[in-house]
Amino acid sequence: MAGPKSQNVAEAAKSASRRRPRRLPRSRYTAAEVHEIFRRFAVQRPEPKGELEYVNPFTLLVAVVLSAQATDAGVNKATRALFKAADTPQKMLALGEAKLGDYIRTIGLWRNKAKNVIALCEALVRDHGGQVPDSREELVKLPGVGRKTANVVLNVAFGQPTMAVDTHIFRIGNRLGLAPGKTPEEVEEGLLRIIPPEYMRHAHHWLILHGRYVCKARKPDCPLCVIADICKAAEKTTDIPAPLVEIAPLEGAG
Fold first, then answer.
1. Structural domain boundaries enclosing 31
2. pLDDT, tens digit, 9 for 90 and up, residues 158-200
3. Model-level pTM greater than 0.90?
4. Residue 78 near residue 107 (C-beta atoms within 8 A)
């Protein structure tokens, strides 16, 4: 019969086992295949841009916060006039919550978003001299800013090799088996692990645009896919890749 000491050791082992991070599922692609996927994305869109419009890091941060549960087009329609009136935290605070609300009334959840943006501006002025910080640790402390928003700002405004996993990237990571995961964080970790360093700067935009316009949620448009021959998705309908030609940048993209 095991004594109290051996029972304690067994419990400690079980507890340690529970604390160990779960091993992520492996990518279904070899390093050479991943490199070729992103090489083709780079040929197709050498300088990919997001679709949210902004004029500086602050307006980018506000636009990303406003884009939660809203379309980029809808956010752009509201922020064009807003950013002409207020393109710094100080100007946004001078505008006030009520007037800010008038500008963004067409965006979903606009009342809560107006409160968040004002609180965000107060924190930027109080803690950062009105400047947007360039570290994830500081960004996620700001009201209304989560990991995904921070990653977008770090990547787009400051050129850092981050991976902001939205619904498109989460779908692609799992559908293609590129970086399978049960959570956005797992997909993010998987992608950061396999994407070659030389492609990390733009990988976030390439995957989003691929998911938005080609590997669509309801039905992937495989004939338009430049990686159809490499893709291992069960849903794919062709093994013939689309011609690898450069696509013109999206009009009005920031």
1. 27-49+157-254
2. 999 999 999 999 999 999 999 999 999 999 999 999 999 999 9
3. no
4. yes
